[in-house]
Each structure stands twice: as C-alpha cells, then as structure tokens.
C-alpha cells in the first residue's frame, strides 16, 4: 500500500475526536490552527472551546477589545499569536465581509498565517491540494525516508516541502493532511514510538537503519540569554497596587505587569534597597521568593524576584487590589497573583 494510503487507513481507525474535525467552517479551522501553533492539543483544546463560546463568529471576535482577547489567551504564551488573531478577525470581518479566503495563496496574505496554517485551512475547508508541514510532519517524513538534512535549515525547508507535496494524496488532501499530523502526534512520537505496531515499519528507513532516535536532525538554537527581573509589588494603606501595560515590541506586548526593575544579575535585599528610589518613604519591603523563579521562554530565561513593598502612598496612580485579576497578564505574573493571595495580605 502507498505511503499516503497507509496513513489515511491508519487515521480512519486511530484518529482522536476533536471539535474542529467536525466542521469545514474556515473560522473554526483558522481559530484552532492559530491556537495549536507551538501548543499541544491537550493544552489548546480548553482555549479553543473558550474562544468558540465567547466569540462564536469572526464578527464577535473582531468587535472584542484586544485586552479581552489577551485575557482569554492568558497562559498560552506567544502572545503575538493572539494579537495577530484579533487583527485578522477585524480584517476578515470588515474588509472581507466575514468571508475567509478560499485558497492557499490568499490565505497566506492574512496576518499571522504562514505556509502551514494556509495549507491546513485550504485543504481542510476547500480540499485544495496543499501539503501541511509542521513538526509532526517533519518527523514522519524524515524517519520514513531517512533524510538527515536539518529540518530548520534553509535547505531542509525546501527539501521537506518538496517531499510533502510529492507525498500528499491528491484525491483526498484534507484526510491525508490530518492523517500525517495525527500519525506524528500519537504514533511516530518524538521519543519512545511503538514501532512494532507501526503500519509503515516494513518500509521505514529510520527503523531499518536504527536511526529513530536521531531523526529528524535539527540545528541547535543559540543558548538562551539570562535576564534578571525584579517586580515591585506595591501595597498601599488604601488597598491599591500599581500595575502597568507593557508597550513597544518585545515579550508580553500589551499585557500588564507590576513595575519592573531589570538588573544585570540577581540581587539581594541590600542591593535592591539601594536601587529603590521610586517611593520616598515606605513601611516595609519583603522578598516573596527567596530563590529566583526561572521562567523559560524560547530565547531567554527570566530569573525573577517579586518584592512586596508596603507604603502609605503609591509612586503613581494605583489600581484597586480587588480588580487585579481583571487584567491580562503573563503566566509568570498570573501564577504569582494566585500564590501570593492579595486578599489574605490586606
């Protein structure tokens, strides 16, 4: 049996029941694909359901405030996806009268939609012969055909895109694309795949050459940078704190955080007090976490301390502590708020 036919046959028996597989509505497919970028299904599913419930059509999403969208996205990370999601919703609703493009080329013009997402929507919704290429597909193709070209190299992207286009079932591109991604997710897993029950075992180059553990090949990324964050958590006598919006490019754009003091290295209380000059008089300063909380992002590791500063007056306009959970914040801040429990402190 052909490679693509074998995958489709496997998929018909082993596929997971997921809500976006029961529709060809472009809005829902697009929404699921944006959420699942760099996110596992088990983590993304509750977010998908929350977005569909809150914004059942592209028009509701377009009319939402960005802060509300970011709040609903909170915890998924890579917040540029949420901002692009909102921008594209507004474009489709206003400029395209709510109708998504019906082909790969035009889908690719939407903000936040790259080759993979355009291929997925085009094939799933309109049965266009457009091969998807994500991490799961790279792994399956690399192992099955025994390809050692790094998947994150310029040459690798060309090689695997050509191979993906050759392998696709032109009679049933939607089912094939779903099949190869599902196969990579639950059968040809990154580590510990059960090759003995694999329908492709007899023709898999990696299995034959005992190269399952080394394929696919990936060029190692640069070592992440270390940054040192000190968040200033003010608590005033009037039960207010300071929370501010991050502006400009960079991580957490348009999300909220406590005032930030960034240092060249991790500092102790003595050093912190030397640098603290935003409040002329404060009643007490305590360190919430004695050991730095290390928050790992793709290109940087944030070594974080939360300093609790009790004061009569705030250095700037304050926010009622009772309202702090209304703000869209990074998961690092969210976890602190939940653990610190402001209500108990005040």
From TrEMBL:
The keyword Cell cycle does not apply. This is Adenine DNA glycosylase. Residues 35-186 form the HhH-GPD domain. Its EC number is 3.2.2.31. One of its GO terms (molecular function) is oxidized purine DNA binding. Its cofactor is [4Fe-4S] cluster. Adenine glycosylase active on G-A mispairs. MutY also corrects error-prone DNA synthesis past GO lesions which are due to the oxidatively damaged form of guanine: 7,8-dihydro-8-oxoguanine (8-oxo-dGTP). Keywords: 4Fe-4S, DNA damage, DNA repair, Glycosidase, Hydrolase, Iron, Iron-sulfur, Metal-binding. It catalyses: Hydrolyzes free adenine bases from 7,8-dihydro-8-oxoguanine:adenine mismatched double-stranded DNA, leaving an apurinic site. Pfam families: HHH, HhH-GPD, NUDIX_4. Binds 1 [4Fe-4S] cluster. Coiled coil: none annotated. Belongs to the Nth/MutY family. GO terms for biological process: base-excision repair; mismatch repair. It comes from the Bacteria. SMART domains: ENDO3c.
């Amino acid at each position: 049996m052909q490679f693509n036919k074998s995958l489709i046959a496997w998929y018909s028996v082993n596929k997971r029941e997921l809500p976006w597989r029961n529709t060809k509505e472009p809005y829902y497919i697009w929404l699921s694909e944006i959420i699942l970028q760099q996110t596992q299904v088990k983590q993304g599913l509750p977010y998908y359901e929350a977005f569909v419930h809150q914004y059942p059509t592209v028009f509701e999403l377009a009319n939402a405030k960005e802060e509300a969208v970011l709040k609903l996205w909170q915890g998924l990370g890579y917040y540029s996806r949420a901002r692009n999601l909102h921008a594209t919703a507004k474009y489709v609703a206003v400029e395209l009268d709510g109708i998504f493009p019906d082909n790969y080329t035009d889908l690719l013009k939407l903000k936040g939609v790259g080759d993979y997402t355009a291929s997925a929507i085009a094939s799933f919704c309109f049965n266009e012969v457009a091969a998807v290429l994500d991490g799961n597909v790279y792994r399956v193709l690399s192992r099955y055909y025994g390809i050692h070209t790094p998947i994150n190299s310029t040459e690798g992207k060309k090689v695997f895109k050509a191979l993906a286009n050759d392998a696709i079932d032109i009679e049933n591109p939607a089912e094939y694309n779903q099949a190869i991604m599902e196969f990579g997710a639950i059968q040809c897993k990154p580590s510990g795949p059960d090759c003995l029950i694999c329908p492709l075992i007899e023709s898999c180059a990696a299995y034959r050459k005992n190269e399952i553990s080394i394929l696919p090949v990936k060029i190692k990324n640069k070592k992440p940078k270390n940054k040192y964050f000190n968040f200033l958590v003010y608590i005033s006598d009037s039960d207010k704190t300071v929370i501010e919006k991050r502006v400009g490019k960079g991580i957490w754009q348009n999300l909220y955080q406590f005032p930030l003091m960034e240092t060249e290295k991790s500092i102790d209380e003595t050093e912190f007090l030397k640098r603290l000059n935003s409040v002329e008089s404060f009643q007490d300063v305590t360190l919430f976490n004695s050991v730095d909380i290390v928050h790992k992002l793709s290109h940087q590791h944030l070594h974080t301390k939360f300093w609790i500063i009790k004061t009569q007056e705030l250095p700037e306009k304050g926010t009622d502590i009772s309202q702090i959970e209304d703000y869209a914040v990074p998961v690092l801040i969210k976890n602190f708020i939940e653990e610190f429990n402001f209500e108990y402190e005040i």
